[in-house]
Amino acid sequence: MIRQQNYDRPRQRMVQEQIIDRGITSQRVIEAMRQVFRHDFAGEALRTHAYKDKSLPIGEGQTISQPYIVAKMTELLDLKGHERVLEIGTGCGYQTAVLSCLCKRVYSIERIESLHSLAKKNLRKGRHSNVMLKCGDGLLGWEEYAPFDAIIVTAGGFASDLWLDQLVEGGVLLLPEGEGKSHRLVRRQKQNDEVVEEYFDDCTFVPLLSGVNG
Ligand code: SAH
């Protein structure tokens, strides 16, 4: 019998050193980061790196975000449990899995077919059943299921006008905004006829692109 490596200790250490010690305070987010097996999303070759403080390649030139950034973005959504959340950029599905522990349903769109399939497999394995995935262009949002309580974008660029239209009143849009590789997390909240805007961490994401790459 092949002995399965146990990743419990590296995961607990990641949560302590990269999440709690760096200022994430939401107990719900911390618990979700403890629960989701990042090593199941990282791919065979990179399993042993899964709990390191860095982003990792997932194929097709894309990456799974660094654990701290996943936790930070999730914390900024301030999910209570009843929300329907749209994610743009499923990638391997790790951020999707974390969100699925914290809200009612996650709708996630990925433009690269092979990653969409990978995420489907990973999320099924982790039994994240409150997730709906689609291969498509996230810049268009997901009209069929709108309006959403929150929209989170996990690729860097500039917001599509359609996203705010697909949010409920009081809903939140969170994205890494900026040119090239220089992004900054921005949170926009729809309030009455206004949009309240707040800026957070500097970061670098893979680019938000248009169209589908089958
Ligand atoms: N949340 C992911 C991060 C993946 S990287 C994870 O945890 O693994 C960002 C992803 O956004 C890439 O897979 C990229 O293909 C995708 N992407 C970029 N532009 C997109 C668009 N317009 N619509 C949908 N997905 C997009």
Question: What's this, in brief?
Answer:
This protein has a single domain, classed as Vaccinia Virus protein VP39 (Rossmann fold, 3-Layer(aba) Sandwich).
CATH architecture: 3-Layer(aba) Sandwich
Determine Rg (CA atoms, Å). Answer: 16 Å
* CATH superfamily label: Vaccinia Virus protein VP39
**What is the highest CATH level, the class?**
Alpha Beta
In DSSP terms, counting alpha (H) and pi (I) runs of 4 or more, how many helices? Answer: 6
Model regions low in confidence, pLDDT < 50 over at least 5 residues: none
Number of domains in the coordinates?
A: 1
Arithmetic mean pLDDT: 95
Helix share bin:
25-40%
Q: Report the span from N to C terminus.
A: 39 Å
Shape: globular
The counted number of beta strands is 9
Order of helices and strands: HHEEHEHEHEEHEEE
The percent range for strand residues is: 25-35%
